[in-house]
Amino acid sequence: QAQLEQDDALESEAGAAAARLRDSIAETRATVLITAHNPAFRDFYRARGERYAKIVKEGPTMDRVNGALLYLSSLYPKSIVQASFVDGGGAENARVVRGSREAPHVLADDVSRDAFFRPALALGVGRVHQSRPHISRHAGEWVVSYSTHVPRRSGSALIHVEQRVESLRRDLGATDNRFEIAVLDARTGTVVLDSRSPQQTGSELGVPGDTRF
Fold first, then answer.
1. pLDDT in tens, 14-30
2. How far is CA 26 from the centre of its chain?
3. Which residues contact 72 (CB under 8 A, 6 or more apart)?
4. What is the model's pTM?
5. Are 84 and 95 spatial neighbours (Cβ–Cβ below 8 Å)?
6. Alpha carbon distance 137, 156 (integer Å)
7. Contact between 80 and 162 (Cβ < 8 Å)
8. Alpha-carbon distance 148 to 38, whole Å?
């Protein structure tokens, strides 16, 4: 009877943790999609002038663009570490890192070689590309990114958002100290997230020394 009760408790806790992780990811994906439909991003291209000139001018159009990214970041300040508006040619139009608007001169000229860019462009409007965990180029910590098209009649642009891996680890949220919850890479058995091991900036992903699985 004790064995059955333990098995039931483990199954229940694992199922609840998986649901919390799925919900966190699904909520971020949905928020990214909603943000991409903000008219500020379409209006940026409708406004007169050359693309970079509009960015440098930093007028009302750019205020609305950055305001949309800042609002997105403010919804999840402990989760979203970066949000950016990327031209279909690869240049950044705007970027917010840890809730702060980046100046025009530090925006990337070309992110087309970043892992998210081409897979995201290849998707249709209304779909989201989700990356494998990687170290953010600008935030310098482990993230999972979500990228989707800005709906436009012509041309391409993306909204790109990076979510802290540490926030996903916290979302595992063991409800009882008796439990250790881990997320594994199903191909290798590597521990990607561990409820008892915070993901430190500058460290390897997960618990690479854990070879139990």
1. 999 999 999 999 999 99
2. 11
3. 31, 32, 35, 80, 83, 96, 161
4. 0.91
5. yes
6. 22
7. yes
8. 13
